[in-house]
């Protein structure tokens, strides 16, 4: 390393750290910015292990606005992140998102829809018959209706990460592969980070962008974040049926969801109460057959004949306080900036959050006010809940 001091350090080189570095350097090319990532292969990085989905369908105004900005940026992302003429090809498929509701949650679902439509989102309500007509694999007796957003979709999350990373480096960021073991502070001010090698790198601002590892690092400066690393397994299955339709990402009323990869190949997953807390990346295919298969067949009978062809596990950084992001400066430690606790929807929020945090660090006016997610709400015990029914 040639320089032991930076203006801003990104403690974690996932999509949130790299997006913030990009927005910082786009606003001020003179900044010295370091992205410190413990594993440049990103083998266990939550960005790469995510489903790569984005959606307008939230219940909270700010979350909807975050997604609106993200969708807008995705239209030009490949060109904007090009380096030396090489574009970031993210393979964005706008196959839509379908959130199915049972009778108990229909009022909440329709209230969320009203909020989305009031903000100009292209989202509609479908009856069970309309859903069955479009997507005949689904059992219309198992839900009371659903919201469908045709602009929602999935993409190559690794390509998005590499797009931000490569462009940030092109703009002047220094990428350092090293493990941060602790943050350093003095007199209520963050001063930098300490690496596993013992080396200390100084900075006026440090962004905790460590994802599922964020709580562990924050503890080194005496801060307890209400964030747990929770393991989520995803299963790949192939069904005997050969659907002619393109299926949207579908969330069933129980929270079980599926994503069609192509033709008769689907990804299946669900958050469950007994999901492991900790840094476990092992998979257990029996978990699908014991806990998910029968439930899935109730919603989509054609899945009674299938073959499990793969599985993987990744980590959610779950905010146990209210399930939403914690963004901004920690009130008792100047210069310590948080981008933590996204609870499974961080990947899709990187565009607006990266811009917001860059504005915060630079002291620039905010184009989208996300102060509702300030860590101050933890001190005041004022949780900001997204609402029921949006579980992925």
From TrEMBL:
Pfam families: DAO. One of its GO terms (molecular function) is oxidoreductase activity. Residues 7-360 form the FAD dependent oxidoreductase domain. One of its GO terms (cellular component) is cytoplasm. Gene3D superfamilies: D-Amino Acid Oxidase, subunit A, domain 2, FAD/NAD(P)-binding domain. Keywords: Oxidoreductase. GO terms for biological process: mitochondrial respiratory chain complex I assembly. InterPro entries: FAD-dep_OxRdtase (IPR006076), FAD/NAD-bd_sf (IPR036188). This is FAD-binding oxidoreductase. It comes from Candidatus Desulfolinea nitratireducens.
């Amino acid at each position: 390393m040639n320089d032991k001091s930076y203006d801003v350090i990104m403690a974690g080189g996932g999509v949130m750290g790299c997006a913030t570095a990009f927005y910082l350097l786009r606003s001020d090319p003179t900044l010295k910015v370091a992205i410190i990532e413990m594993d440049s292969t990103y083998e266990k990085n939550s960005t790469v292990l995510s489903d790569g989905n984005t959606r307008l369908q939230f219940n909270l105004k700010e979350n909807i606005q975050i997604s609106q900005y993200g969708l807008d940026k995705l239209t030009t992302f490949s060109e904007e992140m090009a380096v030396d003429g090489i574009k970031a090809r993210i393979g964005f498929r706008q196959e839509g998102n379908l959130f199915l509701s049972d009778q108990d949650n229909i009022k909440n679902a329709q209230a969320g829809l009203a909020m989305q439509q009031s903000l100009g989102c292209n989202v509609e309500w479908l009856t069970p018959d309309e859903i069955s007509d479009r997507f005949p694999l689904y059992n219309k007796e198992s839900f009371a209706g659903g919201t469908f957003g045709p602009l929602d979709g999935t993409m190559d999350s690794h390509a998005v990460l590499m797009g931000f990373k490569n462009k940030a480096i092109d703009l002047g960021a220094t990428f350092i592969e090293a493990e941060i073991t602790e943050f350093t502070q003095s007199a209520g001010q963050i001063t930098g980070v300490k690496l596993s090698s013992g080396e200390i790198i100084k900075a006026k601002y440090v962004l905790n962008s460590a994802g599922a590892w964020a709580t562990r690092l924050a503890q080194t400066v005496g801060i307890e974040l209400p964030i747990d690393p929770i393991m989520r397994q995803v299963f790949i299955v192939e069904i005997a049926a050969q659907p002619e339709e393109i299926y949207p990402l579908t969330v069933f009323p129980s929270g079980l969801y599926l994503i069609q990869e192509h033709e008769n190949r689907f990804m299946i997953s669900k958050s469950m109460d007994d999901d492991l807390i900790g840094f476990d990346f092992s998979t257990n295919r029996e978990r699908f057959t014991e806990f998910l298969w029968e439930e899935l067949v109730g919603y989509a009978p054609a899945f009674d004949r299938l073959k499990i062809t793969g599985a993987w596990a990744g980590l959610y950084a779950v905010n146990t306080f209210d399930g939403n992001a914690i963004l901004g400066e920690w009130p008792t430690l100047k210069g310590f900036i948080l981008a933590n606790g996204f609870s499974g929807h961080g990947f899709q929020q990187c565009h607006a959050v990266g811009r917001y945090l860059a504005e915060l660090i630079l002291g620039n006016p905010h184009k989208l006010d996300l102060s509702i997610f300030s860590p101050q709400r933890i001190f005041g015990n004022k949780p900001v809940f997204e609402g029921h029914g949006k579980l992925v």
